[in-house]
Write a structure and sequence with these properties.
5 strands; elongated; alpha+beta; 5-stranded antiparallel β-sheet
Amino acid sequence: MNRDLKWLIFGLGIAALLAVIFAVFIYFIMNLIKGEAYELSLTAVSEHAAVEALIGEPIEPGLLVLGNVNISGPSGNAELQYDVSGPKGEATVYAYAIRDAGEWQLIRVIVDVDGARERFDVVAPNDSL
């Protein structure tokens, strides 16, 4: 085996290793965001009759969750955005939650159904009081 081929194989091996490390890093970040606030919002969306009627059942979450989750002891907040889909269509979910005394509470969950002319307040600010 000549010297150039050895360097090429070594370089490809390093690139593959870096790609695997990056993928594992992204996986763990996504799982940190997909916590209790995410699960609460997904349940609220899945049980909302108007959303079920427009996108169908079962409602499945997308793979990507954007946003941030801040936790400091028993308190915190979460701002999330993710997609859901069903047999009839797709929608984007915007979820806002707070954590007080160790428990998450949804403040607002908005569903923007693709193709619909309105957004649904699945959980409105007054609902959570």
